[in-house]
From TrEMBL:
Keywords linked to the UniProt accession: DNA-directed RNA polymerase, Metal-binding, Nucleotidyltransferase, Plastid, Transcription, Transferase, Zinc
One GO CC term, this protein: DNA-directed RNA polymerase complex
Lineage: Eukaryota, Viridiplantae, Chlorophyta, core chlorophytes, Ulvophyceae
Gene name as annotated: rpoC2
KW Acyltransferase (keyword) present: no
Protein name: DNA-directed RNA polymerase
GO function terms (MF aspect): DNA binding; DNA-directed RNA polymerase activity; metal ion binding
Amino acid sequence: MYSFVPNSSLNHQDKIFFNLPFDKKKVSDLINWSFSKYGEKKTVDLVEKLKSIGYSHATSAGISLGIDDLKIPADKKVFVNEAEQQLNFTKQNFEKGHLTTIESFGRVIDTWNKTSERIKKQVIIDFKAFDVLNPVFMMAFSGARGNISQVRQLVGMRGLMSDPQGKIIDFPIQSNFREGLTLTEYVISCYGARKGVVDTALRTATSGYLTRRLVDVAQHVIVRYFDCQTLDGIYLTTISHGSKIILKLSQRIVGRVLAKSIYSENNTLIAYRNQDITTELASKITLHTSKVFVRSTLTCKVKKKYVCQLCYGWSLAQNHLVPSGEAVGIIAAQSIGEPGTQLTMRTFHTGGVFSGSVSEEIRATHNGKVFFTNSTPGKLVRTAYGQIAFLTKQDSFLFLSQITNNDLLNSPIKYQIPAYSLLFVKQNQLVIKQQILAEVSTFLNGENQSISSSETVYSDFSGMISFSLNDTLHKKYQTKLESKSQQKPISESKLINTTKRKLISNSSEFWVLSAQSETFLKPVNFYCFNGDFIQYHANLYKSNLKFVPEKKSFEKYVNNIQYYDYGQSVNSEQLITEKYFRKNNYFSVINHQKTDNIHDFLMVNNQHCVSNHFQFDYEKSSIKYKQIEKLKSDSSQLQGEVIFAKSNNFFNTDLNQYTKGPLPKMYVLTDADLMSWDLNGQSNQSCKVKLGQYVRYGTKVIKGNGITQSGIVISKTKDKLVMRKAKPFLLASNGDCSLSHGDFVNSQSPLLTLSYKTLKNDDIVQGIPKIEQLFEARENMKNDHSLNSLVKKQFELYKESYTKQDAVRKSVKYIQQYIIDGIQYVYQSQGVNISDKHVEIIVKQMTSKVKIISPGNTGLFTGDIVDLDWAELVNRALDYENNDNENKKSEYEPIVLGITKASLETEGFLSAASFQETIKILSQAAYFKKRDFLRGLKENVILGHLLPAGTGLFSTT
């Protein structure tokens, strides 16, 4: 390794010998070290020699991939069998109604995910222990070709795949490429390959367009002066995400220039102002401080969009100060845009393999007994997979003692359990080897890369709904209705059912009882006449009635609202709150409201509004504030609303068209819905079920095996037991069910909606859109985290304690830091290193404008977008002219422009016109008599002038 250094420069003792295996990272470090120590010429020689030595050794080694090099770990079968046992248990629990659909699906995904990870770890352990010189291992782990994910697919297990919609398929590919895939697995695999091809095509285009926009926004940024004399700068710190470090401070500050001197605790000078930071100095500085104040292009004072050498720092190609005339804007744009294409390609290789982060598990290393020495605060929770676990609230220790011949061995093993972990074992519980004791939560790491979504559960067959625990649902309150002026008054004692939509407060369950549906093909006549109120479950039809022509004009009520008042009449506007209900509500009445004193009430509707004990979805969002007047003595107001929204409650058709309308269905119990057992005169004690009892899957009804289908006992005699098939569903506490006890449902009709969180697939598909969202300053759906709303919030905060001018500057600094950290996070999490200075140049273009709120005497208009520096300059000039009149100065607020908008807002017009919206920009420029001073590179290229960069910079000054 030292043959390239001339003998004169090294004594015999100083010769350097590196005794370690060199992978890609180590070779790269060696070249960097050589470059910084011995310069360009010597490093080129070194690289040349490395290449020669590499080729000669590769030739003599003759490394190639043979099928025998793909060694499958022996434990794979064991792991897969364990997973299948767990899944069998999950299936039984789901059939018994102990898990919701989501929990069951989540368990399947989680089990296979963990199994795949365990196999992958085993592959690495096996290679390292038994076959370090295996070609597969050498290629993947040296960084020459391939990665761990591909090795896993070759010799581990291919794992879970996602379908074209991005949803995970719960059928994993258990085979690897060495064993060969089954036909089903092959077809599922094809999804991923296809997704990769399409993705690559789309992403390449997106990435190219991103680069073009970046180049356009920053093409005029050129290094012009040596030092702009600014005392300002920015603080750099380590970027971390939870406990995970994304980008170290020592990496960030290399190649930057210090904005103020750094001293140690005993006041020794470590580094002085305007000194550039080398790798060695960076390590020294980070020992003494966790944040460093450096010069930055964001705070550079050079006018006309140029920058100075000290604010920019090192040119990363030469590792010394950037030369004057360098087109740093274009370098920045290309540095940010180029990895986009790399990131794109990455999807292609893994081919849609699901690799959500697996939470860290703590497993028992041997059989033994668990105990805790002191109590840990926490609470019992139900996990996303339906397990009951204990969530710890502070760090604690778990001890596992080994048992041999029923005696406890002395020294127990100690496991550290961090705060917010899930414990699956309790005090003195016996555990077996490899049993999961705890799961380390990703709660503190902030790795909540999950998306909230909801899933509707559909019925597998037609039947009747039956709730097993009505007490956990909100009770159906019943309301008396009184009336004076209806055509057919409802008597005082008549009770009418209330609203159908329920809020589920606790987890509970309901059963769908099996039944076949039959449509009546005979004409069906309704009993109801004009103005009748139908009670649900009332007998609505009867076959073969004579149809009376006089009675056939029925009114169809859909979403009509009837109000009844009683006692004193009052202004309806003051008393009745208008409500909009969702369609498909059944006939229902809302609980009455009694008013006897003055009330103020404010009805705020935000998607859902809870009134007393019901939950409604309103179709229109409105806030109404109404004053309720005091009623005259002893009077009370009963208010109810009757809604008819079931479209076939009423018919309004001619006799000859009658059979064409939608006909009601009736459910008939057939033999297909029943299960029966012969008791063969067995004593009644052996059959432990009662009439009307719900029996779950797997319950032993009589001696022998358990039942294979859940049901309800409908008949029990001495010789025979008959059950009606049923299926239990578990309702989660955040579920939404719009069915009632006794409702009939068709096969494949929705029963309930469950909301849940899912893991994001690790795919750069999030990368480019996320970067684009930041660079374009897009408003997101909720609008609370968009850049412009954030900068406004900060501006309002700073205004309270600073002058308006300082508040603008501070809020701009805040948002600049926010964007830089966000973009660095996306790139670093994909393993791509980009220097901060590139991002800073782009961010400066996005945040250099302000919006005029009040123009004062500046001659501008409200809403104009101008340069922040220019606005401050004009205000200073007005200040100088007229000290006494404060109103003359303009007021403005900070804004963030997306890169497209920023490109079009430039002072010249040639560059913008050649980018987008050419006609609009040229016609506006003509109308406003704009001039272009040809300061950027693009304008000069268009006109064929010499570029104002490099040596051309001096010809234009």
